[in-house]
Design brief:
With 65 residues, this protein is mostly beta strands. It contains no helices and four strands.
Length: 65
């Protein structure tokens, strides 16, 4: 199964963090999941990052062929 990854513009940026976002779609352009990477920009937290992965509910229990 092949997936297409599309970078998204995320409006959740703040003065202290920056967030990158991606959408994963299958070959039929149906969304299957998302990924968000939050980067902290404060000098004392610049070494930290937070990754959030989401899988569309209909895809959660599918087995890859």
């Amino acid at each position: 199964m092949s997936f297409r990854i599309t970078p998204l513009t995320d409006p959740a940026d703040t003065p202290r963090t920056r967030r990158l976002a991606w959408l994963a779609s299958d070959a039929d352009s149906i969304p299957v999941g998302t990924a968000f990477l939050r980067l902290f920009t404060d000098p004392g937290q610049a070494h930290l990052a937070e990754l959030t992965l989401g899988v569309h509910p209909t895809e959660r229990h599918r087995r890859a062929a």
